[in-house]
């Protein structure tokens, strides 16, 4: 597994082709021979579960993960319970889509107490583990880059995600490693090794200077500074052999025809991942 | 030291009033009773060392630090040597300004090998320690937020800076803790405690959502999500009792009259730090 990445593992995270509906994205994967797709819940809601399941079955495209559960911290118990219920719906959806992984973006703090918010994340995940187990769904804790600590997730390093996995002692919980979020981390190599056996996903994109937008600032593989090939080898050495998702929020890519994006994505994947 | 921060420790990092010359900034501190200033080298070069030293002496304003040395990684040994020589000039300037601290912004990687770049940082600091000792200057390693790992510094956590301090075993080397860069870190509390005895500076500003610009995205204390008061208490509990610098790159603040900014800075410092 040390050479070129295999196209059989390539997955389109559908936010990479944000202007496509889910139906268009499934067709696009089929047309461009991308065997996997990662589905976002708002796109799923637009298309409908039944239509999606049928379309996937007819196309042969497999679902690498559902994006996303999480968003656990909130200032009241009532609101935190609502979030937990929503995560249960996400688990049901993941099961219906026949994927095994629900990606968790754990959520920001409602106030200045980030330590408390992290406890709420811990409690929130704990609350949904039995439901995930019943439905055969694994919960992938995705650490987000520290620049999203205030508005998207208080889980910001792989080390932190690993600690949660260790805390639960449950096969239902693992980590999702996204290169854009973790590439900078001086502890990364050892944290990938620590994650052995619990890696549920590997996402790729690139970090190009300057980052012109906090959310839509990601770039196509090869356009930035991340050693994606090296990171893939580390992740594989730690035992992960599953799908590799390309997840890129980038306005310029969104403005291009989806088929062009998928072709470019395949080329860059082979060259840089 | 658990109540309000003391104004006697307040320092204007002069980038907070970027539109002021160094001469204007010293006058501004005197007029607004801000007892300390942190000086940037390009502003010092514009004004002149002799003029600056005389002006500081006449005003009674003390220099909390010189910004900045560092920028060690480069792809050739020749270029790395040039950077080291430039750091020696910075050490000389710090000594002439009668400050004891040179802040190190360690620099980005010239390529995709961030691990190698980190070794060059380690070597670069090691090379200037004897010179710093001769001149009575301490080297403050300032970890920068991971969102600057690609373009400003490959030292991105306080834990990493602490490891360097431990490696050198030299009283000449310590850390500078900037709230904006480290607030998100799940290891922060213990890393501040680990830094006991080697904390050379404490910088404050705030993280307001959304961050509209990667460089100029900082906000005035109280406008964002950082628990500055809690962090000051942690830093003090770890033994630091020196100046507290307000360092804010923010276009809106730069566009306001400097005296207004200094008055606001004093109010917010008393309320939130």
Bin the strand percentage of chain A.
Answer: 15-25%
What is the strand tally of chain A?
A: 10
Approximate helicity band of chain A: 40-55%
Low-confidence stretches of chain A: none
CATH topology category name of chain A: TIM Barrel
Which structural category do the helix and sheet elements of chain A fall into? alpha/beta
Domain Xylose isomerase-like TIM barrel (chains A, B): 40-255
Keywords (chains A, B): Isomerase
Protein name (chains A, B): Sugar phosphate isomerase/epimerase
Pfam families (chains A, B): AP_endonuc_2
Structure, explained:
The structure is a homodimer of 273-residue chains. Chain A has a single domain, classed as Divalent-metal-dependent TIM barrel enzymes (TIM Barrel). In chain A, the strands form two sheets. Chain A has an eight-stranded parallel β-barrel with strand order 1-2-3-4-5-6-7-10, surrounded by seven helices. In chain A, strands 8-9 form a two-stranded antiparallel sheet. The termini of chain A are close together. Chain A is globular. Chain A has helices at 22-31, 41-47, 49-59, 77-96, 114-135, 158-168, 179-182, 188-194, 228-237, 251-254, 258-272, and strands at residues 10-13, 36-40, 62-70, 101-105, 138-141, 173-178, 199-204, 206-207, 218-219, 244-246. The first copy, chain A, has 273 residues and is of the alpha/beta class. The interface between A and B is medium-sized, with 31 and 31 residues.
